[in-house]
Write a structure and sequence with these properties.
The chain is α+β, with helices and mostly antiparallel strands and about 190 residues long. The protein is elongated, with a radius of gyration of 31 Å. It has a four-stranded mixed beta sheet with strand order 1-2-4-3, with helices on both faces. It has a domain of about 120 residues: Ribosomal Protein S5, domain 2, CATH 3.30.230. It is built from seven helices and four strands.
Length: about 190
């Protein structure tokens, strides 16, 4: 038994040509502009171009080694804030250096820790004018607190600047970098 279904139900007539075919010319549809045809050297600069990279915190302004963090914790002064705990110690280098911590215990998930660290780094970076007004250069360790996650940048930055003001006022009462501290640090490194 042969099936005549196809003959009965499928049309063999061609559909009439459409007025505007998809590929109407050799280069395709001319109305569609596609991407910018400007040569790369004539385009505007990309977002991550070199002028914007100047906003980053330079490597020499960061505390990177665990020993540096421990030295600041052990010998430094602790200052409390609502959004952060700050430890400072007079620096042996000629510039302010920053270390930021956001622990899993205090903050929680990784994306929250990353945001807290970004806020603290940005507070430090945007407070360069206030930091440069301090005669003594310090190593700063900023420990994030959970309350930091509920606010925008303005509040932690205002708190950090308030702490900088406290440091500037009581600079003569804070421990200075003594020769014995330098000798002890050098003996520990050997």
């Amino acid at each position: 038994m042969e099936s005549n279904y196809a003959e009965a139900n499928i049309s063999t007539e061609q559909s009439p040509p459409r007025e505007k075919a998809r590929l109407s010319s050799e280069n395709g549809d001319q109305e569609w502009q596609g991407r910018d045809q400007t040569p790369p050297r004539e385009r505007t600069q990309a977002i991550n171009s070199s002028p914007l990279l100047g906003f980053a915190l330079p490597k020499e302004s960061r505390l990177l080694k665990r020993a540096d963090f421990l030295r600041v914790y052990e010998h430094g002064v602790r200052l409390e804030g609502r959004f952060m705990t700050v430890f400072i110690l007079p620096a042996e280098h000629g510039l302010h250096r920053l270390g930021v911590t956001a622990t899993k215990k205090a903050i929680g998930k990784a994306h929250d820790r990353n945001r807290a660290k970004r806020l603290l780094r940005e507070s430090f970076r945007l407070s360069r004018v206030e930091l440069d007004a301090i005669a003594t250069k310090y190593d700063w360790v900023l420990n994030a607190r959970r309350s930091l996650l509920q606010v925008k940048l303005e509040r932690p930055m205002a708190e950090f600047r308030r702490i900088i003001g406290q440091v500037a006022k009581s600079e003569d009462q804070l421990p200075q970098r003594s020769q014995s501290n330098t000798e002890n640090d050098q003996a520990r490194q050997v």
